[in-house]
Design goal:
Chain A: Its EC number is 6.3.5.-. The complex is a heterodimer of chains A (509) and B (503). With 509 residues, chain A is an alpha+beta fold. Chain A has 18 helices and 15 strands. Chain A is 40% helix and 18% strand. Chain B has one domain (3-306, 388-497): Amidase signature (AS) enzymes (Alpha-Beta Complex). The longest helix of chain B is centred in the C-terminal third of the chain and has 24 residues, at 378-401. The chains are: A alpha+beta (509), B alpha/beta (503). The A-B interface holds A 63, 66-75, 102, 104, 106, 108, 111-114, 164-165, 170, 172, 300, 303, 305-307, 310-313 and B 82-83, 89, 91, 96, 99, 101-103, 105, 200-205, 207-209, 235-239, 319-320, 322-323, 326-329, 331-333, 344-346, 349, 369, 372-374, 377, 381.
Amino acid sequence: MTEAKLAGSASDRRPTLIDFDTVLESFDPAMGLEVHVELNTATKMFCGCPTGFGAAPNTQVCPTCLGLPGAMPVVNGKAVESAMRIGLALNCEIAEWCRFARKNYFYPDMPKNFQTSQYDEPIAFDGYLDVDVDGETFRIEIERAHMEEDTGKATHVGGTTGRIHGADYSLIDYNRAGIPLIEIVTRPIMGAGEKAPLVAKAYVSALRDLVKALGVSDVRMDQGSMRCDVNLSLAPKGSGALGTRSETKNVNSLRSVERAVRYEMSRHAGILLAGGKVLQETRHFHEDDGSTSPGREKSDAEDYRYFPEPDLVPVAPSREWVEELRGTLPEPPAGRRTRLQAEFGFSDLEMRDVVAAGALDLIAETVEAGTTPQAARKWWMSELARRANDTGVALDEVGVTPAQIVEVQRLIDDKTINDKLARQVFEGLYAGEGTPAEIVAARGLAVVSDDGALTAAVDAAIEAQPAVAEKIRGGNHAAAGALIGAVMKAMGGQANAARVREIIMEKLA
Amino acid sequence: MSWIRKTAAEQADALAAGEVTSVELVQAHLDQIAATNGDLNAFLHVDVPGALAQAAASDERRSAGSPLHALDGVPIAIKDVLTTEGLPTTAGSRILEGWIPPYDGTVTARIKAAGLPILGKTNMDEFAMGSSTENSAYGPTRNPWDHDRIPGGSGGGSAAAVAAFQAPLAIGSDTGGSIRQPGAMTGTVGVKPTYGSVSRYGVIALANSLDQLGPVTRTVLDSALLHELIGGHDPKDSTSVPTPVTGLIEAAREGAKGDLSGLRVGVVKELQGDAWAPDVVERFEESVDILKKLGADVVEVSLPSFVHAMAAYYLILPAECSSNLAKFDAMRYGRRVTPEGSPSAEEVMKVSRDAGFGDEVKRRIIIGTYALSSGYYDAYYGQAQKIRTLIIEDFRRAFESVDVLVSPTAPTTAFPIGEKVDDPLSMYLQDLATIPANLAGVPGISVPSGTSREDGLPTGVQFLAPVLEDARLYRVGAALEAALLEQWGGPIVPAAYQSKESS
């Protein structure tokens, strides 16, 4: 046992990574994705404690979620409803009767030293989700979606690894203990070949969109309200078999999902091509370089001793309830995308960029608020995308509302401002200086159309650039651009460019 | 005659009539505890100021004409398995030494809401594992009938306290007989209600699917009064049944009139034989004869799966408790033992659990962990659950032809302290007759049936009824009790605790 571990860790320090294309010459990858979604219910899975993010440690706790002697769980009906809606949206069967079980293991952040989780009787099972990768549709089969509770959150202080071993002490916040989670588990995803990393990413992305559309979770991978474990194995090409898998835990961004699959494929191939055996183990993902390192070894010794939770009665949703919930499902994200693309008249490329940027909902809301799809796309994909990128926030957190964008666009359309001035209006919006109209007034951004001021500026420009003026007189109207630029510069960009051109032509043509 | 000799119903009547105050009642019981607990060790913790304060508040309500309940002001003792805010709760274990719960269990809350002063917490086998109270980390409780003998278990503390007039009422918990068997050993009444009819919220779980709180008293009527007070639906306990718990007091009063005509009583064939001491059987047969005289129609019925009950019980219980007891890891509460050096959390857990748990607890954790292990689950836990289903089916079939079942409560009278501590299997046999009710969730009562001709120690008779038919137990129990009291000329009382005034 000890030797095996040492050998494993030695090779892990410098794993032989095989070039991706070479991997595919010899192997077929198989993936299994386990995604945890934290529900946004007001209270926890088994008690009435609030679930808000960011409260002072250990303030949202009670005897039940602290696992005090004598305390008992009661199932949160709203969480069951959310789980069923996720199941239905994933085309799953909904169990007529199912139970919770206890998953027994010792860990300091587990208040009871067992986790109350569904085991062999999940609330939802046998579903699928279709995902699109470069125009090819992959059907991801869903084995199950089950309910469970989150553990407390441990912070290990001291030591070098940030993990419990080697730490000086650990702080535990039980606010998170008992928050409802839905774990969604796929069947082995086979046959994706070279597209495996992209399929994994597309699945997690599609699942995120779906759950978001259901409104049952914030699905923020960066805040941990959606977490992904990536199982990967390789089998000899064409064998149709399943190899030994590794399970990379907590891969917490879409890009990381893709990278983790890619890395593990290369690492497994390195081991297998050298005649070695892949260890069945959990691994940690490293965001910095996209690599993985060994966690604990999964062996037969790990036995969770599952048995039905005797403190909870079975969950038996009536068929009427199931059908009622089916009626509450929103339009499936994939269908909605197709519909919106047609309605908005976006090209495939435009649509892909919009979806990738997470801008589709925002654009749809902006169009709803009263502007054209092209205008909405322009602002969200340029100015606001840049702002989000610069400040490191999500696009829906840049602090500009669809209604404000509509107002800015209206000011452009009625020629009060131009596109360039609009960027300054957005600056004002970021700074919270009021409505777009107020910002235009306060910053003095309105375009100057007054002929007196414009004529004076044109005269000054002609005087400064006599050679250019001569060209225009000679019939080269394109040369007017240089004079217009000079006028705009002189007037701080606030001149009505069309009127400037007209005045120049009146004087020189 | 001292107030402590009175039943709870009599104390309640005296309070209502203004003949006594709650402070006087509580003080009288505290005096008895002070005089006798050194011998008995029935109480682990006595809350003198708390009980007196609650009594004074009760008296104020009485004089204002607004008592909370008929039992407002009648003192009570609570088995140390149920949480009591601000009062130590140890479940008889070293690992919970010094733990003061920050919350009340539902039954505690109901007792407080009805105004019963809580005298203190009673001794028990550690985590309710045992049939003698010898497994308490705080020393055994002694039987008031003979201080060298056990009072039964796991609720020996509550039974001894009630038998020795330290309290008129007590709360017990029954997982395989822990209320009923001590009742038989101490000449008191004990009831295990229908599973789910009394909230388990706040009960430090032994085996969640078997545990049930219930009354421990000296009379059947007192049990009915307490049972109705603590019973009924609780949203905090998911296994709690919504059916109201009523009609028990009425059934007890009705039964005491002594007419059992039309009642069909089944003597359980499988709960007879060599395992049963002749003097216990003698008293049992005498009780059955009385039932017949009172008009009951007595037949023998067979419940063939009962022979497997013990085996199933000792798989289900350890399985559940091995998981329940995992939370006692010294991380958040309870006694922590920190080894030398700079130990890891895992090492602290290990050492604390080793120091905090007694042998019987460790034995059951090991059995349960094994029974739930992958590869063994189906053979042990799964198989035990099937037996459980068979036993439920046996009860269902039996109750088609009879209204209640009857058997001796325990196979022997109280045995000497130390006799079975090294022989767990013979200890387990104490619960032969009581375990099937827990496996099936049906209610049961143990009523004193007299004293053994051989050793002069009390014996008990057990009645079992279908789920939610607890009232039947009170009817038949009260009828037998009334007939026996008439025959004896008064209640049977341990010699050392007989009233000096009356003798």
